Every structure is written in structure tokens, then in C-alpha cells.
Amino acid sequence: MSGQCTQTSDVLISGGGLTGLTAALVLRHHGVAVTVVERRATTSPQPKARRFHVRSMEIFRELGLAGLVHDAARDLAGHDHMAAGRTLAEAEQLPLWQPVAPGAPALDVSPEQPCLIAQDILEPVLRAAAVDAGATVRFDTELLGFDQDADRVSAELLDRTDGSRHRVEARYLVAADGARGFVRETLGISRSGEGAVGGPNVNVYFHADLAEVVRGREFNLCRLDHPDAPGALASVDGRRRWVFMSPGGEADRDWPALLRTVLGVPVPDLDILSVLSWQAEMLVADRYSTGRVHLAGDAAHVMPPFAASGANTGIADAHNLGWKLAAVLRGEAAPALLDSYDAERRPAGWFAADESSRRIATFQNLAAPPDPTLAHPFVLAAGGFQHTEGALVSGPEATDDPEPVTEFAPAGRVGTRVPHRWLDEARTRSTIDLAGPGWSLLTSPETASPRTDRLPVHRHELDFLPAGECLLLRPDHLVAWRGTDPDRAVEVYDGLLRAELSELSELSDAGPERRDPAARTASA
Description:
By secondary structure, this protein is an alpha/beta fold. The chain is built from 15 helices and 22 strands. Helix 1 runs parallel beside helix 4 (119-132).
């Protein structure tokens, strides 16, 4: 590759959208030098993703950004309802979905609330935070090509403002460059899945002052059933910014007239900003990693918007990958730890994409009761998916008592996010806060201390844990191991960071032959 200068970075991220910027923030949180390049001149001009689950907000909480994000989202505070009607003028709010039966105790799912914030509002917040955290963020910069060897990735960049070319050498490359991103296609990584889901659609993004029209009936999404223009109206700020989603894919229509029809009011200040055709798809990359290159976000998975999981899944990718890259770069973990990224996040991406695809019927009838065969909404929103392979060590109970999917029943099972419990009466500190950016060992007060000080984790005694119980938490809040012997936590911690994935089964709590190498040899 030719270039006038060569720059270096621990990690190069291609793509400055939600996933790429979150990855940069996570890496800086772990002290990793990171460079983000984005071919666009600015962050997204489109609202796109709007609903961010509690799990994403927990990640922003760890990064110290949850309050900033909630503040930026204040325009849509309280817009949690769905609505439906023939026109907007006739639409009525629908009752909020209740996760428990009337009279039952409320579920305390997370220390954070979900957040409605348009992507074009959130991305600048994350970009500014990444720069403040010390990341190098370069927009108007295109990745032209890259190659990798055993030690590094070399990338050629184009500065689109002046046409100059530069080279960056990084230890790793993270591809967060979208569904049709250059990196995945260059690597020749194929995708599997249903492909197109449903029919083509059109999104009409427009401005109109509808604050008085919706006052008292504020909503997140409103299903409109006018025969001339059926579709759904999404609130972007609840006042002037709106997106009308219409089936059919016909972009060349008289949208001002159709919008006035479906809104049911004159709308003299209607201003259409864009009309975009799109097709929902369900596709997941057949591998997330090749050598020193790792896919994340839409580069790794695309899914219909019906479960609001696309951006949230990308944020979770970044959180999972970030601590592993940091541990390897610091020399704390063997490079084999990075194999667990594909082992964990590809099944998670498939799960989210499949659940999103199956929710098309719910999207078409917002008033319909939830499908009991689908994952419980909190399983999607609170990171309830259970990883069964990866940087985890489980015993026989993992198969005997798997994490349920159609109900939300977190119990600290291996491979799941640690359940949320408040730790103080003021409800300011949660069990979620005990992990990240380091490891943590949660124990009951009766649990003995490990016989060694080789465990570089924070130990926390919790009164509500069963006597003798131990939970080893990874930096991404997942339970890596559960048992009763704190000295096992030392073995597990060392094994997870140093072992090949194929060797982790030897660390499982399967019996005394696992604990004693001589016994294993004798039994063989």
C-alpha cells in the first residue's frame, strides 16, 4: 500500500455509527488506543433506530453515559404507548403491555429504564463522548483496503476532503461498517438466514407540527389503517419530526397528499425530508472473525425492526468484544480468548434476528396479545439470552436448568447477565454495577476466602446469595462460573483467559477427575 505516512493504533474501527462508536467507547473504557474511520461526513442524518433496551442502557451506565443519553432523549420521555386508528386524528392510545398479572409484584428488571431516542440524536452524543474519552475519530475517511499478518492489520485510508491517502497499522480491525460493508465482502464471509422478510416498504421522514394533534395521546408507534395509505407513524421527537412507514415499496407517490389523508388534519407546514425504500431482511454472517478482523453490528447481522433489536444487538457485540480485545492487548489473556467472540455473539445474533423476524405479525396488529411462543420481551430487552459456549465454565446444571426463553426468570445461570438487585435503600447501586471494567467474585458472607491472592478480581459479599454460593462475573456482566468453592474461581479465571475454547470443557465442574490431573491420567 502507498501512503504519505503511517499511523499506529491498537484497534482500528471501520464505521462511525452506533456500533462503531460504542466499540470505541468500550475500548477506551479499558484503556485501549483506538481509531475510528467513517466515510460519511457526519453522523446519521436519519432517525433510524429509536428504542434502546435496558441492556444497552446498562452498558452506557457502565461507560458513565446513561444520564447523558437519557437527558438527550427527553423529547420522547413518556412516549411508551402504542396507538392505532384509521387516521392520526382518530387514533387512540393502546394500553401499555403489562409484564405481570394485575396485582402481582412488579418486576424490577434493571437499574436503568429503556430509552426512546432517535439515532441521529444519539450518534453525536456518542461521537463527542468517544473523542472526550481519547479515541481518534475521523469522519470523511474511507477504508480503501487492508491486509493482515500474524502480528497486525495494515489499512489504507482515503481522506475524502483532500484526496490524500494514509496508512494505519493496528493490532486488530473491527468492522462496524454496515450490512453491505466493505470489510465483510472483502473477506468473502457469507451470510445465512431467511433473507427478505415480508414485502418492500417505504419510510417517509417529514417535519410537521403535530404536537397539539397528539397531545394526551402521545405514542412511540401508531398503526394507521386508512385504506388509501395504511402504515405506521413513528414519533421521532413527539412534536415536529415523524417517520411514516408504508408497505409496498413505491417511493414515487404523491406523499404530501397521502400524508395529509392518513394524518387526518391539514398540516400546512408539512415538509418531506426524505423518501427511502427498504426491505426487511434476516441474515447473519457465517463467521464473525477472520484472523485479526472481527465483525460487529449490521456487518455481522441484519434483522427486521419489529423487535427493536438491531442496534441493541450491535451495542452488545461491542461490549462483548471490547473487554476481550483489551485483555489480549494487555497480555492478560491469550489470543485464543477472541475465539469466544464468534462462539458467543453469533448465536446471540441469530436468536435476535430470528425473534425479530417472527414478530412481523405483532407489528401488523399492535393490539394483538403477545405470541406465547416468542421470547419474553424482557429476555430480549434485558440480555436474557443464555450463551452456552465461549469464555464460560458450567457444570451439569447448565443442561438440567437452562435459562427460560418464553418467561423472564433470571437466576444467575452461567452464560447469562447477572440478575439485577439493588444494593442500597436509595436504589443507586445495582449488582450490574459490580462488574466492569474488571472481573468480580460475588459470594455469600459465609463463603470462605480463596486460599490464594492470585485472583485479580473484586470480591463482594451479598447477603441475598445462598450460603456458600459464588458467582464469577466477567467484565461484560455475564456469569462466567457458578459454584461453592472460591478456589475454583481462581482456576476458572486463569483457564478462561489462557485456555483454548476446546479445552474449557476440562474446567467444568464435572467431577473429581477434572479437579485432579493425575486422576484424569489414571482414568484415561
